[in-house]
Structure formats: structure tokens, C-alpha cells
Amino acid sequence: MDHTKSHRSxxxxxxxxxxxxxxxxxDPEGSIDVLADLEATLDEVAKANPRIENEDSQxxxxxxxxxxxxxxxxxxxxxxxxxxVLQIVMTRAVEFMQAERGLIMxxxxxxxxQIRSAYNLCxxxxxxxxxxxxxxxxxxxxxTGKSVYTSDALSDERFAQQRSVVELHLRSIMxxxxxxxxxxxxxxxxxxxxxxxxxxxxxxxxxxxxxxxxSNALHNAELYQSLLNMHQYNEKVIETSPFGTIVIDSEGYIxxxxxxxxxxxxxNKDNLNRLNEEERRSCFVDQLIESEQAQWQHMINSAxxxxxxxxxxRYFHNTGYLEKVLSIKxxxxxxxPNGGDGVIIAVEDITEKVLMEKYVILSExxxxxxxx
Amino acid sequence: MDHTKSHRSxxxxxxxxxxxxxxxxxDPEGSIDVLADLEATLDEVAKANPRIENEDSQxxxxxxxxxxxxxxxxxxxxxxxxxxVLQIVMTRAVEFMQAERGLIMxxxxxxxxQIRSAYNLCxxxxxxxxxxxxxxxxxxxxxTGKSVYTSDALSDERFAQQRSVVELHLRSIMxxxxxxxxxxxxxxxxxxxxxxxxxxxxxxxxxxxxxxxxSNALHNAELYQSLLNMHQYNEKVIETSPFGTIVIDSEGYIxxxxxxxxxxxxxNKDNLNRLNEEERRSCFVDQLIESEQAQWQHMINSAxxxxxxxxxxRYFHNTGYLEKVLSIKxxxxxxxPNGGDGVIIAVEDITEKVLMEKYVILSExxxxxxxx
Lengths: 372, 372
Description:
elongated
């Protein structure tokens, strides 16, 4: 992190904007389906409903707003993946407000604005002197928590003197804060240079509402992302553990198995996965050589019935072509995701260690004989 | 699960409806703040904006719809906790549509409708003969995926003959499907017996849109819940592991420590937590007795620099008042949540095992002497 810059110096995080159609195809949550559903519903209901059609002709703008804001609501809540939400929010904002350029900036852990999504603005443009006015507006909105709107930046005395307004012929700027529980988390910025697309003051009404929906959606995506990070971290801790780890549920099915355990038991991950596809789940004991199944079942049952740790510090695992000495610990675990109880089996391959110990004992014996 | 019932026999899951004010107080995501923000924005912008006020007077209903549906959107997306979302959705639906009673039913894993939230309907009422018509409507909507709307159930030939319509004087019923990616996941049902509160056909337009927003929000809440379950499961696997497990990051701070490790090192969880509050994080090596710190740091560094497992199968841990023999394995782990790398330390207290081995060796020695 670069700690030297302030709010006034936005940095570039995530460049450009992916065209919305492409993005939707990639979206695992299927926002395209949701929107298609909505379109169908709107058409269907409007046709069947004379009152809505009448309202439409009396006040076309208002009904369009309702439809647009609903579509926006569905779109921005259609994913919990933060980067997807940012892209959808950016593209929808530009479409919704008929803007030429747009930016979404979020405050980072050092309370500095970072650009997280941009539309029709490249990194170079944002570094230019011309962009200084826009940067000062985003900073103002982030620090005050109040929207900035100017229907004609040229005639607005606050901005008219600044170079970029004159040079870029900026006519219209809207920037609204994104707030979660009253605290600013970032801003959305839109601008238009064309006079024909000048923002109306009523656009700010919709854009502020849009900003509130966006804040909500981004907050949800952040909650999801942070839980996902913690989940992936725990998965990694289990996977990387120096012990073979297997968790089985009360019916004997494997709910977790790490690489260490796959190696010790010479299980083939692909076989287990193939079994998963067919039978949905693989039974641990069934994967073992038949001659060992009864003993493993007995050890597992011991831990389950006693609800205490079962351990065997020297288990001879012999599959016919493979001989290993294992140290086994089996502990009960309650409330698995399916609601039932189960056990964790932790195994260590101690074949080499046992071999070493034999040599130690042999040498002790020889020393003892020599002492006579 | 009861597999004997069909769609036509709804079962009761979650009774009654918590008053919305109480619910909001309990909501950890602070939806009350979001709604208060929205109200403030709406009032502020409407006052400052003559065009919106004009539109208001021309078409009061439509602008009220816009405001209501936006409030609903914010409310139902204000939490990712499934039960909270269900309660908010129920209460908002009843308020929004001015209904007397309401139900949210979701399909369970056996494709049976289960009542997940109810408003002004108790378990007994739903068991009564009178409720049979409502049950058949919810089943119809769930199986066809099409809304059912009847502005006057008494004059609707489909329902007029059925007893409950006559006896309950049901006038108005609306039931819309909840769909995710085109697949029905449940239904929302509302009814009114009073003629003055009869649903208009245009209400169905809004209610269907509401249904789509709800589907989205419930889907997000379900994704979050299922990730949370998996996360809690992994936490439990790590906590329950028969080995002491500590994860430390590249700066030496503890990111995970389970009960096994706390016991082996005689660490006090409260002390670690207290440290966490003050310094945010606890450094593992600093928690150890000073005389052992250098050796632990050396072992940890070995694993980090070699990026391979470091192990000591017989480490003598002596804190002055405590003597233990530990088996230690240290493995590198990459990409911790803070972005850096670290190590997993797995420890086992083998004090008793070592004592047993000493006896074995002693007896082997005696046997050897006897053999002479």
C-alpha cells in the first residue's frame, strides 16, 4: 500500500469496463436470466393491464424510472462477487443516467479513495491535469458525504474557473457518496460533456437512490468476499496440515480428505471424485482393502460410542503390495453440515521412524550384551 | 423429514411474524439506518426538486410505487441472514400490498413446500379445512411457475365452489412464484377478506416485481448461509483436530490457534484475546518462555526459508515448572488472508509415549542381559 497519497490523488485499481453483455455471459449467478425474466414479466403484465398502459402514456418518464431502477436493483444484487458487482454497477449507472464517463471509487483501509471500476476513462486521462477538477469533486463527496451535482459546470461559480471544466467543456457532473450504516465507503462519479445529454436535477434523485442500492449491494458482496477468504484460508490450513486428515460423517461418508491422507492410503483423488459424481459421496471404509475394513470400522466405532479420542500409535497397514506403519488418532466431531455427528481421522506415516527405533533398540541390546 | 406429504399439504416451519421494528433492532446489518438514510434522501431531494413534486401531483400512485419498491429493495437486500431476509420480505410484502395475511413458502430438498414465514396466520388456521383453497393455490403456483391472482375469489368460477372462499369471505388472493435462474424455489402468498382492501390487477404487476427482487435476495442469503456453514465446519475440523495446530503469518503473528495447542503450550486464551484487543494480534514466539524463543524462531525460519517441512520428533519443552516432550512439524503455507505467507505448526504432546518407550528399551536391555 502506498501511504503517501491523500484523498485527492485517486489511484487506478481496475481499468476499463467490460461490455455488459460479455460480463453477463460470464456471470455464474445468471443475472441475464433474472433480467430476461423481468423483461418478460413487465411486457406480459403491461399488456394484460390497461391501467398501467394508461399510466404509461400519462407519465412515460416516471414508469421508465420505475422499470430502470428495478432492473438496476435486480442487476446489482444478482451477484455476490465483488468485482462482478462493481462492473455491473458501473455499466448500469452509465446506461441508467446516459452518462459518457464514469468512475467508482472505494475507500481503502487507509481511508484513501481507490478507483475500482471505470467507464470510458483510461488511466492516462485520470493522471492528466484535466482530471484535477473531477478528482477534487470525488474527494469532496467522500469527505463530506454529500452529493455534488452541477447541471452546467461552466456556469457554476465553484468550478467555472478551473481549467479542466473549460478545456474539456464539461457541462454536467454528478457524484454521490456510497454509505453503509451512515459511513462513507466510496463514491460514484458520472460526467457528460455534451449539452444534449446534460443531467437534470431530477436525475440526481434517481442517482442518489441508485447509490443507496449500490452501497447495500457492495456491502453484501464485501461480507461474502471476506467470509469466502476466511473459508479458503481454513480449507488451506486443513489441506496443508502435515497430518493426513479425513473427516467422515455418521454414515461413514467422507466429507473432507486432504492430500496427506490421499497419499498415505494411496487413494486416487480422481476415483473418489468419480464416485462422488455417481453416488454423490464416497464411504471411507469401502475404499480400504477388504481385509482392513473390519478393523477400521471398529476403531471408528470406538471413538463414536465412547465420544473420546481413540488412538493407535502403531497400526500396521498392509494392502498386499504396500506396507506402512501408521499412527492413528480418531476424535469425534459433532454438528457436521448435514446436521449429524462424525469423526476426524488424523494419520501419520511413521514407517521410517519405526525403522529407526528398531535400530536404536538393536544397538541398545548390543550395548547391553557388551556390558556383561 | 416427512416424505409422505405432497405440495398440497404445507407444513409449518417458522411461525408468526416478528414485528418489523423489533426485527430491525436485532438486525446486525443495520437495515434501519439504510431506510432512515433513504427517507432522508427522498424528503430532501423531493423538496429541492420541483419537477418531482409536479410529477407527484400528476401521478401520485406511480411515485409512491417507485418509493415503495425502492424501500423494499433496500430492505430485503439489507441482510444476508436467511431468517432475517424472510422476516423482512414477509412484513414488507404485507405492508406494501396492504394485505391482511401472508405466507412465504420455500421448496425443501424433497421439492415440498415448507412455510418459512407467516403473517397473521397461525399453525392451527393453516391446518383447518378452510385453508385448503389457499394450499391448492400455493401448490398450483409452485408447480406451474405462474402467478395466481383473483380480485374477487367469490366470483371467480375456479374458486367460488370451494368452501373456504365462501366461509372466509375471501375476496382477494395473490400468489407469485419465487424463481432463481428460471427454477421455482418457492412462493409468496397474500390474501385479503375485506372488500375495501381488494387487490387491484395493477398490484400484481408490483407484486411480481417484488417477487423477483425477493428471489434474488433469498438466493444471495442462501449462498451466504451455505458458505457460512462450510466455514463453520472447517473451523470445527481445525479446532477438534487431535493435534495442537497454530498458524502464524510471515510476521510471526498467530492467525489460528486451536484448543490442543493452547493446552500443550499452557497458553491462556483470555490472555491471547486480551492481547488481540490491545495490539490486534499476538506474536507466537513472544508468548513462549524466553529461553525457548530463539530455538522456535530458528525452527520456523527453517521451514520458511527451505519451503519444506521441518520436523523434530522429540523436542524437549521446558518452561521451568513444566516439562514436556513434543513432536513438532512445521510446514509452510502460502497466501494467508492478509496476502502473505506463513507456517502451520502442528504439535503433539508425546511425553507419555516417550516414557513408555524408555521402559520398552529398558526391558529389551534386561532381556538381552538374560540371554547371555
